Request: fold
Amino acid sequence: MADLETLRAEVATWLRANAPASIAGTMLTNDEGIWGGRKAVFPSLDAKRWLETMAARGWTAPTWPREYGGAGLSPDEAKVVQQELARLRLPPPLVGFGLTMIGPTLLQFGTEEQRREHLPKICRGEIRWCQGYSEPGAGSDLAALDTRAVLDGDHLVVTGQKVWTSYADESDWIFALVRTDPIAKKQEGITFLLIDMASPGVSVRPIRLISGASPFCETYFDGVRVPLRNVVSKMNAGWTVAKALLGHERSMIADVFGGGAPRKGKGSALAALARRYVGDENGRVGDPVLRDQIAQADLDTKCLALTVQRSRDAMKAGHRPGPETSMFKYTATELNERRHELMIRIAGPQGLGWEGEGFASDELAMTRAWLRSRGNSIEGGTSEIQLNVIAKRVLGLPD
Ligand SMILES: Cc1cc2nc3c(=O)[nH]c(=O)nc-3n(C[C@H](O)[C@H](O)[C@H](O)COP(=O)(O)OP(=O)(O)OC[C@H]3O[C@@H](n4cnc5c(N)ncnc54)[C@H](O)[C@@H]3O)c2cc1C
Reply:
């Protein structure tokens, strides 16, 4: 414990000395953070410097081994870094599927060559990754995927279509599931492949959403040649890798939506919103039903954050994310949708603006965030699928 407190003091001193003053208290771009990649657009030179400085220290991926660009910290030590960043109101220098999904998967299943090639570039924010799982005929039933990869010498030739590929148009590489054995049982004919999006034959088409944003794309592969060294694990053994990655993805989603419980002394964002829109002159909210709903949502958020924390502690003991991540994914996303519904109900007509002078910018952002939240219970596997996983693999119930 004393060691951790020494580390805390060192981390705080280093961060104060190295973090550009202009980025404290910001999320760097909108509210999303820096995703890196060859096409990255930094909101300021300081944001770029912040990423470079943190990457040089290994603190974009603090727990990854040093030889792959991390800092080799234990989970407890990494938590100290996170806590100090939060305390000093410094944003994470880098976010994205490289750090949260493919990186941990390569650490578990990748060859030494794959780790050395890809992990340092993820840590430095040089390469941005996207996820090629879903297809027009394969979403919940992911194993039905039909993108073919045919062996040709020391290459696989990939042809097919992925859909809902988040940020494919801004990414450099894609981790994709492809069918390499069309005759085997469907889960046993799938290979997990790393594909450079700059390869001839890859094309992407953005899909426009109700919120006005285009966060995802259709991704096409037309005879794309991929070296065999880009197979993760073995040919036709991709289903195991795919499921492990989904565990990381669901933990990440639960973290994003479930880690932000109202903190002691900070008050509730929902209560503040209610005071603003339906409070009396003293800021009191008269409607007992609304008060009850706000209290329930805040309590549920707090309980979830504590449960996620308990699971993180189990991970420190070497436990990898398993089917229980479905519980967090389900609860966190359903709760996030409920909170957004409540926000819109509180704001009334002011929460339904799209554009125009009658709405403040935070009101317009609230509308868009509400619409975006509708996808939370679908992305990373729908709520119904999470309930199926919980029933079968956590509770052991029969089909
Ligand atoms: C915001 C967002 C981002 C995404 N990003 C990506 C990405 O980057 N990469 C990627 O590969 N995919 C991505 N997806 C796709 C996502 O993984 C799929 O949409 C999801 O798995 C559901 O598949 P589907 O859309 O084909 O729906 P379907 O599988 O057709 O499901 C339709 C409905 O039927 C229900 N259903 C289906 N099967 C069952 C069953 N067995 N039991 C009970 N109910 C069932 C579902 O719950 C759902 O309500 C994203 C989706 C969203 C919304």
